[in-house]
Design goal:
This protein has helices at 21-29, 77-83, 91-108, 119-132, 146-149, 154-166, 175-185, 228-241, 256-265, 283-287, 310-317, 348-360, 362-377, 382-401; strands at 2-6, 34-40, 56-61, 113-117, 139-143, 169-172, 192-194, 215-219, 246-250, 272-276, 292-295, 321-325, 341-343. The chain is of the alpha/beta class and 402 residues long. The chain has a seven-stranded parallel sheet, with helices on both faces.
């Protein structure tokens, strides 16, 4: 099978810190298939691409002068635009370049299927390229969360509904996203598949002995939907019961200065450390330094929310007790008080109480951690996920030919 993958997130150099789940899916599916990836250059860095494993080929496209290629990478398109409004002016050039390269590559190569990650811009580009270049190939679009939930005004819903209607199959990473597609975008249930991304659970493994320090860890982009500010606001209450506790915050985003200001105002500079972006291959070591991982997800004011939250699964893989915010997608992974704890991510008192509970009760913490790792081993291992997507590709191709 010959697959063309479209993605705006494909870190192709070691120092790129943005998410690598598209890379991992391509790597695992390419063990038995030929996978071509069409992705944007990041600030013109295209001369020294790291070698790809298995049967993969990377096609990078330029969309502006290297100095201005800031739309992708980092915290993602939406956050990059928030950080620098000038970046938005490169969107038309990005779209035109992606559509043209997609069309030209499809004309040159005999692909069996196009797999577009995110509704906008990748699925839109694939649909337009298919129409402009008269390409006879089925399209699978995978929505990861933010692209589905944000900007749900009438125009946005109309555009996204049209894009989804033009794709042959839609995969989402949680059951709540499937329900949202049916309710908001009028998608037929038969057109939808729930197929989450995976985690390298052979790398995210527990250490032999738990740390004796009360270290609480947060990993993620520093944006509203992650609920980081509510975690910081909860920390003084945690310190009342656990005075030696430390909070480590790994990640970057446009809320960084705000969060640092709150930490300073609350006199928490000695108890809260901002680590910045941590390389993905260093995350298992970092997670294993913690007693608990706290991810107090919320629904943001623009309706953005977690599609699934792979960091939760990585922490569970390392056999850590996880505390997560109560957004719909987490219920695909967490059963409260069975393999983790669910909190009201907007309620700092609830967050503090749950952290104190986990730190104070070693038996409960150990039970949650062991059950957590066991619950994710089968469903989220990358080999299993790759098999699921390969089966989905074959089904789409077969139905398209009928």
């Amino acid at each position: 099978m010959k697959i063309l993958v479209l993605s705006s997130t494909f870190p192709y150099l070691d120092h790129h810190n943005h998410p690598r789940f598209v890379n991992a899916l391509c790597e695992h599916t390419s063990q038995n298939n030929e996978v071509h990836i069409l992705a944007p250059s990041i600030s013109g860095e295209e001369q020294s691409v790291e070698p790809l494993l298995n049967n993969q080929k990377l096609h990078l496209f330029r969309y502006c002068f290297s100095t201005f290629e800031k739309l992708t990478g980092g915290s993602g398109i939406t956050e990059n635009i928030k950080n620098n409004r000038m970046v938005a002016f490169t969107i038309p050039f990005f779209m035109a370049s992606q559509i043209l390269r997609c069309g030209f590559i499809c004309r040159k190569e005999n692909f069996d299927i196009i797999h577009a990650h995110w509704i906008i811009p990748q699925a839109l580009s694939a649909v337009l390229a298919k129409k402009i270049f008269r390409i006879n190939i089925p399209i699978l679009v995978t929505s990861h969360g933010g692209d589905l939930y944000t900007s749900e005004n009438k125009l946005s819903i109309y555009i996204k509904s049209w894009i989804l209607s033009q794709c042959d199959k839609i995969s989402v990473v949680s059951e709540s996203m499937k329900a949202h597609c049916i309710k908001t975008y009028n998608c037929a249930p038969s057109k939808l598949a729930v197929a989450p991304m995976g985690v390298e659970l052979k790398k995210f493994t527990p250490v032999a002995r738990e740390t004796t320090e009360d270290i609480i860890l947060f990993i993620g982009r520093l944006v509203e939907k992650k609920g980081t500010i509510n975690l910081i606001n909860a920390f003084p209450k945690v310190l009342e019961k656990r005075p030696s506790a430390k909070l480590l915050i790994a990640g970057s985003g446009h809320e960084l200065e705000l969060l640092q200001s709150v930490v300073k105002t609350k006199n928490l500079t000695h108890q809260v450390r901002f680590l910045g972006n941590v390389a993905h291959n260093q995350l298992p070591k970092l997670i294993n330094q913690a007693k608990t991982v706290v991810l107090p997800f919320i629904v943001a004011n623009n309706n953005d929310q977690e599609g699934l939250g792979l960091t939760t699964i990585e922490a569970m893989g390392c056999e850590k007790a996880v505390i997560v915010g109560d957004v719909p997608a987490v219920h695909d992974v967490i059963k409260h008080k069975v393999n983790g704890l669910i909190v009201n991510g907007k309620d700092s008192n609830d967050i503090a109480n749950k952290i104190i509970e986990v730190l104070s009760n070693e038996k409960e913490r150990t039970t949650l951690a062991k059950r957590g790792r066991k619950s994710v081993l089968d469903k989220f291992d990358w080999n299993k996920v790759a098999d699921t997507y390969t089966e989905l590709y074959n089904k789409i191709i077969k139905e398209y030919k009928c």
